[in-house]
């Protein structure tokens, strides 16, 4: 998955309007806060994210994230809350991807995955709404 993320960042992309919110901005914090409950449901709290990719255009966003413990320690199978499958560590660890939509003043992780072994966001049905933040996928 990290190889795919690297390839996606090195591909020449059509000029787009998406932006990457800077560290410390309210927008970036809001997006991480939208994803945090999903990660905490799997790993428990507290946790933070290493951001591999973050794109925002208007009311839609795309993220590639790595959940970490607050001390920066990588997640391990021992961190899983009982009942969650260790399969997410089988290939490239607990990398997470999400497609977000803003609803009023709140960001919502509408589609997300953890430990995905493919680029699930490529193509339909995601392009109709998120093309501006995943142009290489559409």
Task: Describe, in short, the structure shown.
Keywords: Signal. This protein is of the alpha+beta class and 138 residues long. It has one domain: Roll (Nuclear Transport Factor 2, Chain: A).
Describe this structure in words.
This protein has 138 residues and is of the alpha+beta class. It has one domain: Nuclear Transport Factor 2, Chain: A, CATH 3.10.450. Helix content is 22%, strand content 28%. The chain is built from 3 helices and 4 strands. The protein has a 4-stranded antiparallel sheet, with helices on one face. The longest helix is centred in the first third of the chain and has 18 residues, at 26-43. It is globular and about 40 Å long. It starts with a helix and ends in an 8-residue tail after the last helix.
| Number of domain modules | 1
Order of helices and strands: HHEEEEH
Number of helices: 3
Could you estimate the helical fraction of the residues in percent? Answer: 10-25%
The biggest sheet, with number of strands, parallel, antiparallel or mixed sense and barrel status, is: 4 strands, antiparallel
The low-confidence parts are 1-14
Summing up helix and strand content along with how strands pair, one would put the structural category as alpha+beta
- What is the level-2 CATH architecture name? Roll
Mean pLDDT: 88
Beta-strand percent range? 25-35%
Radius of gyration, taken over Cα atoms and rounded to an integer in Å:
15 Å
CATH topology: Nuclear Transport Factor 2, Chain: A
Cross-sheet strand order for the largest sheet: 1-2-3-4
What's the N-to-C terminus distance?
Answer: 19 Å
């Amino acid at each position: 998955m990290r190889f795919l993320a690297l390839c996606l960042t090195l591909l020449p992309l059509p000029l787009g309007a998406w932006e990457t919110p800077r560290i410390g901005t309210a927008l970036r914090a809001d997006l991480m806060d939208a994803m945090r409950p999903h990660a905490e449901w799997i790993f428990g709290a507290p946790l933070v994210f290493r951001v591999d990719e973050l794109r925002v255009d208007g009311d839609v966003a795309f993220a590639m994230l790595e959940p970490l413990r607050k001390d920066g320690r990588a997640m391990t199978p021992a961190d899983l809350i009982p009942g969650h499958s260790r399969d997410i560590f089988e290939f490239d660890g607990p990398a997470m991807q999400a497609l977000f939509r803003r609803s009023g003043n709140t960001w919502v992780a509408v589609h997300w995955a953890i430990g995905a072994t493919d680029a699930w966001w490529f193509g339909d049905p995601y392009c109709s709404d998120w093309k501006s933040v995943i142009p290489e996928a559409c």
